[in-house]
Amino acid sequence: MAQEVHAGSLVLTGAWARAADADQRLTFAFVTIRNRGGEAERLMTASSAAAVVELREPDAAAQGGARVITEGFVIPAGGLLALEPGGAHLLLRDLQGPLALGDEIRVLLRFERAGTVVVPFRTHWH
């Protein structure tokens, strides 16, 4: 079961990434972020030593079917942001190596108010 991570008024749950074979240079990561605070929060950036990380959302007109989000993702006060397959997600590209089933990749998420938090993403085949 995925670990629960807290950052300020945020609770992050269900963090996972798709496993990637040695010949794959990218994968995707997902997490649910709940904002228990009274003010909106924003996920500004994400980074990892294992890959270049981009915030992405679906866009049929964009190359690859998703566009990079430079303004961040808003998490409304009392609401949630679900990064999930087919929706907004984290793209991990230029992987430093394979991500086998059950591996863990650590991603730093930087929020506007809550600051930076390290989130462990366990790999699955979904």
Automatic annotation (TrEMBL):
Pfam family, one: PCuAC
Protein name: Copper chaperone PCu(A)C
